[in-house]
Amino acid sequence: MQKIKFFDTTLRDGEQSPGVNLNLQEKIEIAKQLERLQIDIIEAGFPAASKGDFESVKQIASIVKNSSVTGLARSVTSDIDTAWEALKGSAEPRLHVFIATSPIHMVHKLQKTPDQVLETAVEMVKYASRRFPVVQWSAEDACRSDLPFLAKIVTAVIDAGAKVINIPDTVGYITPEEYGNVFKYLREHVPNIHKVDLSAHCHDDLGMAVVNSLAAVQAGATQIEGTINGIGERAGNAALEEVAVALHTRKDFYQTETNMRLNEIKRTSDLISKLTGMVIAPNKAVIGRNAFAHESGIHQDGVLKEPTTYEIISPELVGVKPKTMVLGKHSGRHAFRNRLEEIGFSLSDEKVNVLFQKFKDLADKKKDITDDDLFALVIQKQVNGDELYKLEALQVQHGMNQIATATITLKKYDGTIVQEAATGAGSVEAIYNTLGRCLDMQMKLVDYRIQAINGGPDALAEVYVKIECNGIEASGRGVAYDVLESSAKAYLNAINRIVLIQESREKQEVI
Ligand code: KIV
Ligand code: ZN
Prior knowledge:
Number of helices: 17
Function: Catalyzes the condensation of the acetyl group of acetyl-CoA with 3-methyl-2-oxobutanoate (2-ketoisovalerate) to form 3-carboxy-3-hydroxy-4-methylpentanoate (2-isopropylmalate).
CATH superfamily of the largest domain: Aldolase class I
Strand content: 15-25%
CATH architecture of the largest domain: Alpha-Beta Barrel
CATH class of the largest domain: Alpha Beta
Distance between the termini: 44 Å
Number of domains: 3
Largest sheet: 8 strands, parallel, barrel
Structural class: alpha/beta
Domain Pyruvate carboxyltransferase: 4-266
Keywords: Acyltransferase, Amino-acid biosynthesis, Branched-chain amino acid biosynthesis, Cytoplasm, Leucine biosynthesis, Manganese, Metal-binding, Transferase
Shape: globular
Subunit structure: Homodimer.
GO molecular function, one term: 2-isopropylmalate synthase activity
Bound molecules: 3-methyl-2-oxobutanoic acid, zinc ion
Number of strands: 18
CATH topology of the largest domain: TIM Barrel
């Protein structure tokens, strides 16, 4: 069996999805969950892109212990130096450095000749290898590059010290057969190829990212890059959970094994979907809501008699569990902490105490508290814990043929209290107008979505919004028992992000 490593770039390529902006705490939560999933390499960000990226890569590198953490760098020494500062605290500092190799990129973007690109690539790999024990080198737009030139530059960067060679299909253009042929070509024409791991990195513009990744495995790739839920630039990257489950289910064909803990897939996918606001299509392979639903009578009959008649993947394999009632209002702190640990959260006493109070408040209103409810409570606390503006009180008056009015009390980070009231065509609009007035900000609501966690009349309401202010777009989430409260919290969560982005732009932090 050939071992295949997974390189997850949800926090870098995935975060480049339009409209996605994760804060530090959210990135840390995702990294910890990727570690639980037993991802081999986590690309935590692009340290030279901004102070925020630098900080999150640095923190993730110091927190994550069982996966290798890496950061992206362009082929310039300042990017490599910044990446070193961010990654030097990790167990095995690993750099991901790239340069474009296709004629179209070299001529129009880099304005360099192939010889100049080769020289820069070699210099930068040598420079990085002086400090980083592992340097991964990527040929951006490799799949539209001239193959003899690709082989020449790959040979040179391996000689310069690269330990992993990545062959990205940057624009999602190649077909499976062609992609496999690129790997075969390199294996035949690069004399030192046996010294490195060969990596595949596919984008999904033509819907072929997963199948291209599998073709690369067949042609000798030993590392697959991608994101959870396939999020990423434009149409996204290869969905790692799909690649992993395909390799597992068709082990007879691919003859490979991986380290991924497949039963953590569902939770990882849910977390990333919640935090990025990118909804999963119900019919999405492996993790979609309908992936294990059997509608036709013939199928239902078959599955009842023997699940394998129509199910090639069991729900348990990917961590889809039947809805369980786990805790209720009589549950004590000890049971609460145990359950949190079972669903993957090891929290400090202080955090458990705060959450336990929230759990008790919820249990007064809701009879059965499920794992999903607990998960929502923890994530809400973890990501919204240190907000600049906090909702202190909310009152809404509404009725049919009446003008809705909201009154809101906000607490600012410096302790000052703002109280305002405003009207709107409906309750949610009244709330959002009032929040705008409290903060003297003009905002546009771009997206608003609401869903019940677990369903039922006493379900928690989860609201996702996207807003725009002064050309900045940000998303926000809110969870509460009441739909209007969760609507207000989601909007405020997005406002908090906009304020932070605005501040970092003012400080000219973006490089
Ligand atoms: O798609 C791509 O080419 C990339 C590189 C930076 C590796 O993401
Ligand atoms: Zn990419």
